[in-house]
Structures are given as structure tokens and as C-alpha cells.
Amino acid sequence: MNIFKFGGASVNSADGVRNFVKIVQSYREEMIIVLSAMGKTTNALEEIVDSFVAKKDGIESKVDALQTYHTKIINELFSKKDDAVFSKIESLFGQLRAYLQKSPSLSYEFDYDQIVCFGELISTTIVSEYLRLSGTPNKWVDIRTCLKTDDTYKEGRIDWELSQKLVPQAFGFTNTFVYVTQGFLGGTKTNQTTTLGREGSDYTAAILSYILDVDKLAIWKDVPGIMNADPKWLPDAQKLERISYQEAIELAFYGAKVIHPKTIQPIKKKKIPLQVRSFLSLNESGTLISTASKKQDQLIPVYIRKQDQVLISIRPSDFSFILEENLSSLFSIFAKHRVKVNLIQNSAISFSVCVDNSDRRLKNLIEEISTKFEVRYNENLELITIRHHNSEAVERMTNGREILLEQRSRDTAQFVLL
Asked: May I ask which residue range the UniProt record assigns to the signal sequence (predicted)?
């Protein structure tokens, strides 16, 4: 049994869907397909969420534009206008519009999950129906019915015990060889929709792989494999042929966009190999993530860039020392507002952190910290991480740039740059 995860870029057009079907039909094994929302649909739905919560005008036109985008793809794929896919997609957009007629709840995260989930529900419906039309019978599964989480909306935590009971029932391979389901989504015990964190479809695929003891997990991207930099940023980026689970976890932790940070842990526990492949070049082998030793890792410099960063410097108002109780208090505030820290550095009287500019959460965080500490911050920064750094790699990244904060270890160097 294989699990294939496809991102939104693979099905962002009718031609993309046709290419996707070509890949699927080239395999003859039992298969579960985990799919993201099409193209930039999640971004569009996030704009709708913001308008909905802020009670702004213009929501209807945003939904119309999103429906037009998907309808165009359907029209190019399905010649018969009475095909079931048309009514199914119309129904899903009807459900979305009905939710948007309500008043926002008191929780932004709750509304976010109930609205953004439609991206994956729509994409998987279209793909499942087109697979059927193309001669590949399959079963569409609503992942929310079996992949259960707590009620931490927008970052649902997996209920492993319950999910391990329900997932094998949903994917039993009794009457079909192919399943199509959604990445990124989960459901609570009371059947409320949750999401697993941005780009969480990789994590969904890893969870299913772990629970179902699959032979291999493949994640299909628009790049040849895992590169030592984003090729859109550094055109001379090189592909890493094979890396260990440990190295993959490190790269994900520091923000490499190819793999979701939580993805590696479940498959590492059962030593399930992960192949990162290109849906644009089927002859390319991609990058294998497995039990390779550190000696087998390609230890060339790997460059990771995180943009739109904020450097926050915190110190006690009375210039007293940053003691353990201060740090404990600060970390609890960061945890409360669910702001992930990308880099930490402290001195006797100050504590500095680099974080993503997550607007709503960050504003509330700074406001609370400011009641007890003196806070300064810089916006519009970049955080550059270099794994397996050397002097040439450091010079390449920092030459001519103002370094606001720098941190180096044996394997990793990080720079906050203006």
C-alpha cells in the first residue's frame, strides 16, 4: 500500500488534474491519495475569513471569484454538464455561503477552520470525480470522520487513540483500490472541523502512513526533490539525493518549506521511507528520506530563508536581571498566544526572540508582555539559517547586510538581517 500526497500546485488547473491522473494511473498498488486545496485557494479563503470576522463588505464577490475559478476547471474536465460533480461542487459552495450568512463566533480560530476547510473538500471532490470519469474507480473519504483531534482550532492536536481505531475502518480496501481524501483537516469528537496548521497536508499523509503501516509515503511537489535552497530564491540550488530522518527534522524545524515540521516524526517511528518527488518530472527519483546515517547525509550548506520576521527585545523595566522566573513567565505568554519562536538569545538584562509576523497573535502578545516588561521590536526582517555552514556560505548570505542578531553552533548558523 502506498500513500501519495499532492499539493495544491499539482492540481491548480485542468491540465494539472490530467497530469495528476496520469501519475496515479501509472501505479497498480493499493493507494490513498491525500490532496490539498487547488492552487491558491487557501489564501483566498483566508481573505474571506478575515473579511467575515471583521464584518467587511465584499465577501460575496470573493466567494464568486473562487467558485468561478473552480467552475472553469470543471468545465474543462467534464464535457457533460449533468455530471454529478457540478451539483456536488454547487452544494459545497452553498454550504460555504450559508456559513458566511451567520454572525462570526467569538473565536477567530474556530471560524477559520469552518471556512478554510472548503478548499480541500472541493479539490478532493473534483479529483475523485475526474478519476472515476477517467476509468479509475475510487472512494472519497471525509477525513474529518476518522482523523480526530482536540478542539485546538487552527492547530489541532491528534487524538491518536481514537484515530487509530477509526482510520483503519475508513480505509479498509474492501471494495476499492484507490481512496481520495483531504489533507490539513481533522474533526473533533463532536464533529467540528479542525485544521492541523498551515501546510498540514504533509502531516496528514504521515499520520495515515503511521496508522496504516504503509510501505512508502510519497509527497509530490513542483520541485525535483528537497533542495539545499528554494530555487526561486537561489537559482543554483542543488538537489539532496538522500537525507536521514534527523536531518529532515532539522530542516523542517528551521523552516524549509518542502516538508511540514511535524511530518517526519510519525514515519520515523516505524521507519517508513519518504520520497519527495516532482509531479512535473516523473522520471526523476526525487529525494529519499530514510534511516540514512549522518555520514550518508549530503553535508553541503543548506540555506533556509524566512521572510516577514519580527525581532522582539524584552527587558525588565527596572533593569533587573533576566532570571528563571522571568523566562518562565515570558514562555508562558508566548505559549498562551501560540506564537512560535524561531530564534532565542538572552543576556543578563534582555531577552530577544525572532518570530513570524502573525499579525493578530503578535499584536496581542506584545500588548500583554508590555504590561510587565519594556518591549522593543523591529519588523520586515529576514531570518537566514545555514545548515552545515562554512565561511563562504556565511559571506554569501550576509555580505552587505546589517546583522541585527547572530547565532552559531557546530552545524547551524542563523542571522536576523535587516
From this structure: none
Q: Give the chain's mean pLDDT.
A: 92
Q: Is 257 annotated as a binding residue?
A: yes
Which range is least confidently modeled, 106-110, 254-258, 278-282?
254-258
Q: Could you tell me where the DSSP H helices lie in 141-263?
A: 160-170, 201-212, 245-253
For residue 186, which of 140, 209, 136, 152 has the smallest C-alpha distance? 152
Tell me if 208 sits within 8 A of 179, measured CB to CB: no
List phi, psi (to 5°) of 268. Answer: -65, -35
**Tens-digit pLDDT profile for residues 93-105:** 999 999 999 999 9
Q: Which of 29, 34, 3, 35 is nearest to 177 (CA)?
A: 29
DSSP structure string for 254-276: TT-TTS-TTSHHHHHHTT--EEE
- Under CATH, what is the fold of the domain 302-417? VC0802-like (3.30.2130)
Chain segment 306-333, per-residue pLDDT in tens: 999 999 998 887 766 666 667 778 888 8
Q: What is the pLDDT of residues 180-230, one digit of tens each?
A: 999 999 999 999 999 998 778 999 999 999 999 998 899 999 888 999 999
Report how far Cα 101 is from the mean position of its chain's Cα atoms: 28
Integer Cα distance of 54 and 104 in angstroms: 9
Domain 2-221 adopts which CATH fold? Carbamate kinase (3.40.1160)
CA distance 243 to 249: 10
Q: What is the dihedral of CA 292, 295, 297, 300, to 10 degrees?
A: 180
The candidate with the shortest Cα–Cα distance to 153, out of 179, 190, 123, is 190
CA dihedral defined by 356, 362, 366, 369, rounded to 10 degrees? -90
User: Hey, where are the domains in the chain?
Assistant: 2-221, 302-417
Read off the pTM.
0.86
Which whole number is the average pLDDT over 366-384? 91
Residue 166, pLDDT above cutoff 90: yes
Q: Is 258 annotated as a binding residue?
A: yes
Per DSSP, the three-state class of 406 is strand
d(CA 224, CA 74): 28
